[in-house]
Amino acid sequence: MSEPRATLPIERFHLKSGWWMVTVFVALGAALETCHAFKLGFYVDESNATRRLMWTLAHAHGTLLGLMEIAFAFSVGHIQDWAAGSRRNASRSLAAASILIPAGFFLGGLFVHEGDPGLGVLLVPPGALLLFLAAFLTARAASRAGKSTD
Amino acid sequence: MEALLLAAAAAVALWLLLAKRAWPPALLALLAAAGVALSRLPVESKAGSPSDPMTSERPIAERANGYVSSDTCRACHPGQYSTWHDSYHRRMTQVVTPQTMLADWHGATLEVRGKTFKLTQKGDEYWVDMVDPGWRDDARSAAGKPTASKKQVRRVKTRALVATGSHHQQVFWYSATEDRKLYLLPFTWLVVEKRWVPYEHTFLRPNLATEQTEIWNAECIKCHSTAGRPRRDPVTKKLDTRVAEFGIACESCHGPAEEHVRLNRNPARRYALRLSGDDDPSILNPAKLDAKKSAEICGQCHSVSGMKTRSGKRDWWKDGFPYRPGAELRKHREIVQRPKDPNHPDLLDPTRRFGFDQIMWNDGAIRVSGREYTGLIESPCFAGGEFSCLSCHSMHQSEPNDQLRRDVSEDQACLQCHDSIGKDLGAHTHHGESSAGSRCNNCHMPHTSYGLFKAIRAHKIGSPSVRESTENRRPNACNLCHLDKTLAWTGEHLSKWYGQKTPALDPEWSTHAAGVLWLLRGDAGQRALVAWHMGWAPAQDASGREWMAPLLGTTLNDPYAAVRFIGARTLRGLLDADMFEYDYMAPAAERERELRWIAAIKAPTVGDNPEILFKGGAFDMEAADVIFSKRDNRIVDLAE
What we know:
The complex is a heterodimer of chains A (150) and B (640).
Chain A: H1 9-37, H2 41-44, H3 49-78, H4 84-110, H5 124-144
Helix pairs in contact in A: 1-3, 1-4, 3-4, 4-5
Chain B: H1 2-18, H2 23-40, E1 60-61, H3 70-76, H4 78-85, E2 93-95, E3 109-112, E4 115-122, E5 125-131, H5 135-138, E6 155-164, E7 169-175, E8 182-190, E9 195-198, H6 221-224, E10 225-226, E11 242-243, E12 245-246, H7 250-254, H8 258-263, H9 267-276, H10 291-299, E13 305-307, H11 310-319, H12 329-332, E14 333-335, H13 345-348, H14 350-359, H15 372-376, H16 380-383, H17 412-415, H18 419-423, H19 425-429, H20 440-444, E15 447-451, E16 454-457, H21 467-470, H22 477-481, H23 487-498, H24 508-511, H25 514-521, H26 524-533, H27 537-543, H28 548-553, H29 561-574, H30 588-599, E17 614-615, E18 618-619, H31 621-628
Parallel strand pairs in B: 1-11
Antiparallel strand pairs in B: 2-6, 3-4, 4-5, 5-6, 6-7, 7-8, 8-9, 10-12, 13-14, 15-16, 17-18
Helix pairs in contact in B: 1-2, 3-4, 25-26, 26-29
């Protein structure tokens, strides 16, 4: 029977942050459902359609990014020979994206101007780029994993 | 394009299945395909699709001349779109569909002037079986007399294509010609009462000798659509009518928005404007215009106006009105106002004078609904330069009914300028501060206009006086609430409270309540106003209700259908509804029967009160007949 592999700090970080994100954004989803249930004007009125869209996007992206963090934590242990620098970059990019994207959507919905979200939404494009980078680095590492033993 | 993208996706999938390590290039290929697909999506949809099966028969809505339609506005202004969508302005004209149809169309047979109209619904279509509108001309001899017998009457089946109104009434328009001309079905659906009545009996107008032919493209298009263009061919006179939108939509008030939409596709421009706090010069906001120009936007429809020149009229038939919000309304339109000088040629010319007498009181205040701008510009408040329609009304922050600003209470609208009065309201009004007599609009904007079977507030803002009722014939605010008091009584109070001089009065103004005199011997418009006020809660509180029914009974056989309608409606509120089965369209003999028993209703608590014609708790018919014999039988025609 082999010894269980020691978990890396990076795995623990993403596992922890992933589950916390799922917790937070599932709670946000419940809060949004409550706004629907009680037909709260600041959320359901036609004039607040942009806020509703932004917060729905914050909830959906936050939850999915939480799941991605968990998936990343598991991936780190399964991708062999992942260069430390690349792994660090992927980890930091994903962590930053996990903050920027949901926060951008949420803040964008906090202060809306008719059909346009608030300036907070400007956090989303850099977040998206970082997410893309994290996904690309992970995909590339996964593609190369075990290549030397093939 | 769709097929090409489908083939590309299938090829990529196949490649993935067959090739090794093909993911990166496959992913790139998919992204490229998605990019191409997105770039080919239309930026905006087009209205007035030619695939609409009815568009050959009616005017069509199209995006042209810089107009883009409210659907486009919705994307960026969902809140404003929503409040406009809830408004009755939007529904002033709608294409007939099961969603817009309010009337009962199921097998109704209607009759007017000996002609029957059979209504049937087939699926989503609403059909009318009627006498061919062109038949009358065919069947007349050169002398103009009918030559055809009843059997020869030619009937046609046509569809109701467009509806006007949705709040109180709805009327329908059908096509009977090869062009896009729409004719009025001569019946009106009363929304609250849920019944059909002849169209001509929904206005306050005498029994007309001849049938009126109403054409939507010639009249209603002016104000019941956005940027309507009749597009009449100068030679053939055929119409190819277009509108930017049916109903009164965003661009009626904000102007054509094509350039605004184009510029604001750029998010940097939007955020730069937002951060700078500057107004967007590419669109007009009536709330940010000066009061005069802002009011003119409403005045383009809510006024008595006409084309300035004959060429202007010709141009209108071709391309519609040239006025756009923000421009000078009077450059394009003549706004009709009653001359102040009684010797003005327009007032001395009987043909012109008749028009003024019909639509205006002698002080220039408007008598008909929907022309509030004409009243507003006669007001001292408007002359101050800061007062406009938007001081009290809002298109977007209001309830659809009356569209009064939600953020300003009814008194606050006045007190925002007249703040010193608000500090001690009772001292100014001489009424309890919380009573109806202390509400600014009840005294300064009494209900002296008529429309839609009701009295509507005057928009010529002024102070009540005896003179306005004697010289100008306009019932004054005091006596429209205190219906049981004489004009002399009003004069005494106005003299005591405000130092007004009371003019010399005919003796009857001192012996009989002004409300009674207007109801019994006033013209049809005055009778309608008093009949409505007898059902108005503040008037009932101030004057008592017990004595009103017998007097209102006199309206039940009024020659004007609208007066009968209002009188009966007020009576229903005063009496047990089950006791009262009166129909204002019933034959005169039936109406007379109802009148008799209502006139005999006793009011023991009233006792003797000659001012309201009561003797021993009973209505004094003999005294009423004396007043009735002096009735003002001038022709009144208050048709919107």
